[in-house]
Amino acid sequence: MHFNLAAILSLAPLALAGIPRPRMVNTVVETNNMPMMRPSPNETIGHAIVFNNCEMPIYLWSVGQDISPQYQLIPGDSYSEVYRRDSQSGGVAIKITTVKNGLYLSAPQTVFAYNLVENLVWYDLSDVFGDPFQGEIVTVEPSEPEIWWNEGVPPSGSQVRLLEASNDLVLSVCY
Prior knowledge:
Oligomer: single chain
CATH architecture: Sandwich
Number of strands: 11
Order of helices and strands: HHEEEEEEEEEEE
Mean pLDDT: 82
Strand content: 25-35%
Low-confidence stretches: 1-42
């Protein structure tokens, strides 16, 4: 698996502050129903990574034309998938709730969406049906301008960003 060392090292201050660093879970969504765009031999494709730093489990689904199974991340766990281009919608939305089966219950969701276009990945972060991480810090790294929700609630305005697809994107909830 490829992880952006700079993104991982950016979590080093957490360990220095006595906050345990999240464990990596080697979960990569890659099924026949979810085709992946393969990189040319001279390029690599990064990952969309979600860290659960909360004191409770969170639940997520990778959604394109198909919906992945529900993944439960216990505190300290992470989820990772290689960027892929969905053949029907173009983009992928990683939908996260704090409620088991929340995707099907219209529970508040944080949506970490991306769209792989050649060697670039367009991405954004938003909430629907409420703010599941209200009162917590939610951040995506790297992002420029910075995506940092100090109270777990998205600010007004666009959160859409662009990054070279060889880089990993790390969403941390309850940072």
